Amino acid sequence: MIASGSTPSHSLRNVQIRSILLFVLASCSWHSLKAQLTLGDGDHVLEITGRISTYYNHRFLKDGEENRRKDRFRLRDAQLQLEGRYRNSINYELQFDVADFSQSATGLVDPENVGLMDAYVTFKSIPHLHVTVGYTKLPYGRSSQVPFIYSPYWQRAELVRGDLFSRRDVGVMLSSSFWRQKATVYAGIYTGLGELSLRGDNDPSGQPEYLGRVEVAWPSRYRHRDIDDRLTPVPMFALGANARYTDKSQPAGQLLPAFAPGEYGIKVIDGKRSAFGADASMQYKGFSAQVEGHMLRLEPRNANSALFRGRSADETGGYVLAGGFYGQLNWFTKKYNSILSARYEELNLNDLAPGIQRRFGAAYAYQFRGFDCMLKLQYWQVLEEEVSVDPLRWSEQVRIGIQYLFK
Amino acid sequence: MSLSLRPALVVLGLVCCATVNAQSVLKLKHSASMSVAVQEPSDLVLIPGSVPPRFLVVSDNGYVAEILVDGTLVRRSEELAFDLEGALLHNGDLMVVDERTCRVLWLDTATFQVNKRLSFPYGGGRNKGYEAMVWNPVKQRFLLITERDPVLIVELDTAFRVVNEVDFDRTVRDISSATWHDGHPWLLSDMDMQVMKCDPLTYKVLERYAVPIINPEGFAFDGNGNLYVLSDDRQRLYTFPFPPQRAD
Description:
The complex is a heterodimer. Chain A is mainly beta. Chain A has helices spanning 8-27, 98-104, 142-145, 313-316, and strands at 38-40, 44-61, 72-86, 90-97, 116-123, 130-137, 168-178, 183-190, 209-218, 236-247, 271-284, 287-300, 320-333, 338-348, 357-369, 373-384, 394-406. The longest helix of chain A has 20 residues, at 8-27. Chain A starts with 7 loop residues before the first helix and ends with a strand. In chain B, the strands form 5 sheets. In chain B, strands 1-18-17-16-15 form a 5-stranded mixed sheet, with no helix packed on it. Chain B has a 4-stranded antiparallel sheet with strand order 2-21-20-19, with no helix packed on it. Helix content of chain B is 5%, strand content 47%. In chain B, 45% of the residues are buried. Chain B is globular and about 40 Å long. Chain B is mainly beta. At the A-B interface, strand 2, strand 14, strand 15 and strand 16 of A face helix 1 of B.
């Protein structure tokens, strides 16, 4: 009913506000007014969680650089996650970050902060086989599988944060675990445009991307976590290997969608693109380590592609290599509720361009309430730049802030 | 300071901050371990009077099984629930706790038929619900215990009405199982890898013992000097001499 003197839009807004209030009240009304984080009817259980995180960033600029726009507070996460189970046959998840939507609307896509993070359904009715359909993380690279909330860092390693290869896409994934979940195999087919696939259409080639990954752990199943907060009493190891391939050669006169090539111009290319990676992880008594490497082979369709850096086909063989590795050491101390970590990485964004990029990073996190409420401090230093591909205005960076999870 | 020195100083600082995390609990050492033929086992109860010991085990996959002490499967039920995490044998009834649906199921121990089912609504996180159940004969209460954030001990009377809630020790990160032994409730923490002897009236922790195994999810005492601890991730049953002999 429209109240006297109010417009339909006001009335609609009132209805929306009342609906939200009703939802919030219903969510808080159980017994002793505990936060209602799960709703269920026996067969169907829905869990509502979320995360808010804010940091302050400071960059140490090179001499002569004056633009200090990166010295700022930033709302990194304002996320809501709805995760459900229907009996033992279906899992689903919808996760989004409203802080990222405004940035995504400009056309730029920060692959680590894309707005929509998960929107998928997993069907588990077939014995030993899970089928996941929708938009979610790709089974490529171990680091990408580790939920960011379990990291003391404010940013993933440059190699794996989504500028060299996509971390999310729309498609279908099959997975199967065996040997008491010590081994898992993944295979998937996706649009191939990564986070940009959310815009709807494929690129003019219409070609998909194929991915596969194998993980093996010993002596027991190894969860996708970097920090050994359980102080594992026996050494645990995990190894992984993965590959992906797509041929996005554009038809004559057609171009890749804007922003598809990404920050370094190699995320999606007009041509064939293969990537191979391997990773290892271990943990023991609070100490943990990860190492991960990736190699990209890019075969641009056009001999005049900028990726060839003006070199002839005889010199290049018709392809360009890119990739790198990173290693990370972590220590968790329950006594001091703290995590310490150090990270080193090397990147070569184009083997035809001179130089490589090397970075060092360190992080400290203090847990007020486990990972749910954590102070995080991260430090970066650029040790070496690949100036011809990715010139930087800064040499060091510090980021400090709070991560809070309601779950 | 030159830029190249800074990484080295940061690493040095991290190392200097590191100190040994001293344990104030007595560490137990297992004398045997056996593979268990139950997928993702999450709790166990000893069948009273069984010689050699036999156990009823619940699985994360929603079924109940009977195993021998060597881990061999004797029998198993069909899928009864979605995520069974706790088990209690009381007056011949087997009660099992389904964490996801916040339900307790009463089973016939001979047939594993479900005789009764009750819900105990709890709004905590999906994987932070009821994880353990035990009978406290001192207070004549059933105890339903949530896993974490927070660990709550919910007291139920014999008609299964909630009569009290107690916050458990906040220094314990989670609870994965509970049992009664030697006049006390005992609780197991998976994340802290400890078994804790508690006061039967206040639930204050009286003694702590470290059980250094991966993902301990269930435990039981046989009264003959053995503590059995079940590892979910490793699907193994560990035997510890108990009480342990102190070195001094």
